Amino acid sequence: xxTAVHFGAGNIGxxxxxxxxxxxxxxxxxxxxxxxxxxxxxxxxxxxVLEVGEGAQDRxxxxxxxxxxxxxxxxxxAEIANAEIVTTAVGxxxxxxxxxxxxxxxxxxxxxxxxxxxxxxxAIGGTDILAAEVRKHDPADNAVFANxxxxxxxxxxxxxxxxxIESFFEWVVDRTPxxxxxxxxxxxxxxxxxxxxxxxxxFTVNTAHAAAAYHGIDRGWVSIREALATPELQAEIRAxxxxxxxxxxxxxxxxxxxxxxxxxKTLKRISNPHLPDTCERVGRSPLRKLSRHExxxxxxxxxxxxxxEVWNLLNAVGAALRFxxxxxxxxxxxxxxxxxxAPADALAETITGLEPSHPLFPHVVEVIELRLAQ
Length: 374
Ligand SMILES: NC(=O)c1ccc[n+]([C@@H]2O[C@H](COP(=O)([O-])OP(=O)(O)OC[C@H]3O[C@@H](n4cnc5c(N)ncnc54)[C@H](O)[C@@H]3O)[C@@H](O)[C@H]2O)c1
Ligand SMILES: O=P(O)(O)OC[C@@H](O)[C@@H](O)[C@H](O)[C@H](O)CO
Fold this sequence. Notes:
Blueprint: E1 3-7, H1 11-23, E2 27-32, H2 35-43, E3 46-52, E4 58-62, E5 65-68, H3 73-81, E6 85-88, H4 95-107, E7 115-119, H5 126-137, E8 143-145, E9 148-151, E10 163-166, E11 170-174, E12 188-191, H6 195-218, H7 224-228, H8 231-252, H9 256-270, H10 279-282, H11 286-289, H12 297-305, H13 311-320, H14 329-338, H15 344-352, H16 361-372
Parallel strand pairs: 1-2, 1-6, 2-5, 3-10, 6-7, 7-8, 11-12
Antiparallel strand pairs: 3-4, 9-11
The chain binds nicotinamide-adenine-dinucleotide (NAD) and D-Mannitol-1-phosphate (44H).
D-Mannitol-1-phosphate binds near residues 151, 152, 206 and 282.
C-alpha cells in the first residue's frame, strides 16, 4: 500500500489533508508531538469528519497509524524512507522543527523515486520554507517540493478525534515541480501558476478573518460570527477587503466582479452560524500574522508601493497590536515588545520586517506610536 506521512494531527491535518489522502488510497501515518492526540489515534481505529454546509456528507477515516515524532523519531524516519508523500499542517513557524526529521528520512530512503513533499500551511511559499530547512540538513535531497494553497475552515474542536468542518474546500498545488507526473490526490487542483491562488486566498479569506478577529476581540466579541453581525464592524472588514481587492485586480488581473463574488462568499463562510469560530483562534500567533509577507503587511506593502490606499489595513494592524491573550505565546511576546520601551521605528522593523525606506514604513510607525500612547 502507498504510504503518506502527515505531520500535524490537528484540525486541518485530521479534518482535511489526512482525509483526502485516505480517500486517495494512501495509508496515512500521522506524526505529531502531542502524546494526547497520538495516543487517541493509536487507540481509536477510526474517526469521523463531519461536514457542515452545501452538499455536506459525513466521512470516516480509518486504516491509519500514528507515531509520536518527539519520542519515536526513528520510527518516523523509517516511515519517510519508504513513503510516497509527506505533508504537513503544523504551522508555518514549526516547519523548521519537522525539517530535520524529513531530511533524515530522505537520507535513509529505500525507494528510488523522489519523495513528494507538500506543506499545507497558510503561508506564501510554505513548502519553499520547508525545503530550505530540509536542505540545511540534507543538501542532496531526493524529493519534489511543491507549494500549495489550502482553504477550508476548521474551527477549534470540542474534544475527541472527530472533526467538524465546512463542506467547502480548495486545495491548489503547484504542478510545475512534477514534470508531468503529478501524484493522484483526491480533490487537488493542479496549477502552473500558484501565485494568484495563494495571494487571493491569503489576502481575502485570511485578511478578512484576521481583521474580524482583531477588531472583534477589541470590542469584546468572542466569536467571529457575532463580530461580523455588527454593521459597523462588517463595514470595516469590507473596507479592508476593498483594499486587498484593488491589489489582486491590479497585480493578478482578477476580474473585479469575480473578486467581489469571492469576497461575498468569504464573508458568508466566515460568518457560518453552524461553524462557531472564535476571535482567539483566528487571531492566534499575531507576530506571524503581522510579518512582512503575511495577510496585512504583505498586501499593504504592495499597495503602498503602487501609491494606493491602505488605511483600513493599517487600522486592522492597529487592532492586531492590541491582541492580548494570555494563552497565546506570540501575543504575550508582542505585548512584551510593545511595553519594553523600544522606540516605534525599531518596533516597526522588528514586528513587521519592513525596511525603513519602504513607503509603508512611516505609516506603520504611526500606528505603533498610537498603540504606545494608549
Ligand atoms: N484550521 C484551519 O481552518 C486551517 C485552514 C487552512 C490552513 N490551516 C493551516 O494549517 C496549519 C495547522 O492549523 P490547525 O488549525 O490544524 O492547527 P492545530 O493546532 O489544530 O494543529 C497543529 C498540529 O501540529 C502539531 N505540531 C506542533 N509542532 C509539531 C511538530 N514539531 N511536529 C509534529 N507536529 C507538531 C500540534 O501538536 C497540532 O496537533 C496552520 O499552518 C494553519 O494556518 C488551518
Ligand atoms: O491558521 P492561521 O492562524 O494562519 O489563520 C487563522 C484562520 O484564518 C485560518 O485557519 C482559516 O480558518 C483558514 O485559513 C481557512 O482556510
